[in-house]
Specification:
Elements lengths: L1 E10 L2 E11 L4 E5 L6 H9 L4 E3 L3 E4 L2 E2 L5 H7 L1 E3 L7 E5 H15 L7 H15 L9 E2 L5 H15 L3 E6 L6 H14 L5 E6 L12 E6 L2 E6 L1 H10 L2 H7 L4
The structure holds adenosine-5'-diphosphate (ADP) and magnesium ion (2 copies).
Family: Belongs to the ABC transporter superfamily. Ycf16 family.
Protein name: Fe-S cluster assembly ATPase SufC
Keywords: ATP-binding, Nucleotide-binding
């Protein structure tokens, strides 16, 4: 589904990704862990099409298409969930209205019919039930005054409604309390399916207590330096990232 080969990228004149390769198949959940500053968010941002990154060598293919050549909206229509496209806060814009517009823009780009408000409401009700969410989020402004946990629940709700093939979630290193982590995990678990893949970027192992990934990768110094099963996350929790750094040191 997604193949990243030898990806290099610079930010503000500094080399951040230095030959990153990753292969994600439908149905898989990949966790990407790694020390602070390793380039995890950079990777997520580049896949999302965020500006400000200078991609050098390397290639990213999504279902056979050159992902990096696509505009962010085209990536979304192709089935890549781009958390940053669904902005943090848009006061005064109703959450349901916003999400229906986003979904219909994607459907239109794929040549599918747009959903009218009745059809959309039906879809929303189904998704709320699957995720065990209350409908109070629907009537508020997009993320307006949402708590950290509510923002996370809303992100998962957006994901459920947009039904992407590949969802990339960057669970930023700080500020997520246990409720927010559980909301993310419950959502990911409820939305797992044989034809949907997830890349969950996280600094901490604790998220993976709730999401059982198929593959865990360690990103350090701009590359995937280690991949393994869920036990790798536990190993990192026990030993920290120091052993990875030792491994990266010349002559180690
Ligand atoms: P991680 O998410 O793994 O903690 P990031 O991808 O956020 O790491 O950052 C990787 C490196 O790139 C860090 O050294 C960070 O300071 C640098 N970096 C990221 N974004 C920018 C930017 N916009 N300008 C300058 N440096 C940046
Ligand atoms: Mg960081
Ligand atoms: Mg980060």
């Amino acid at each position: 589904m997604l193949t990243i080969s030898n990806l290099h990228a610079r930010v503000a004149g500094k080399d951040i990704l230095k030959g990153l390769s990753l292969d994600v198949k439908p149905g898989e959940v990949h966790a990407i862990m790694g020390p602070n500053g390793a380039g995890k968010s950079t990777l997520g941002n580049i896949l999302s099409g965020r500006e400000g990154y200078e991609v050098g060598e390397g290639k990213v293919t999504f279902e056979g298409r050159d992902l990096l050549a696509l505009e962010p909206e085209e990536r979304a229509a192709a089935g890549v969930f781009l958390a940053f496209q669904y902005p943090v806060e848009i006061p005064g814009v109703n959450n349901t209205y916003f999400l229906r517009s986003a979904l219909n823009a994607q459907r239109k780009a794929r040549g599918e019919s747009e959903l009218d408000s009745m059809q959309f409401l039906k879809l929303v009700r189904e998704k709320l039930a699957v995720l065990h969410l209350k409908d109070e989020l629907l009537h508020r402004g997009v993320n307006e005054g949402f708590s950290g946990g509510e923002k996370k629940r809303n992100e998962i709700f957006q994901l459920a409604v947009l039904e992407p093939k590949l969802a990339i979630l960057d669970e930023t290193d700080s500020g997520l309390d246990i409720d927010a982590l559980k909301a993310v995990a419950d959502g990911v678990n409820a939305l797992r399916s044989p034809d949907r893949a997830f890349i969950v970027i996280t600094h901490y192992q604790r998220l993976l207590d709730y999401i059982k990934p198929d593959v865990v990768h360690v990103l350090a110094d701009g590359r995937i330096v280690e991949s393994g099963g869920p036990e790798l996350a536990l190993e990192l929790e026990a030993h920290g990232y120091a052993w990875i750094k030792d491994r990266l040191a010349p002559g180690a």
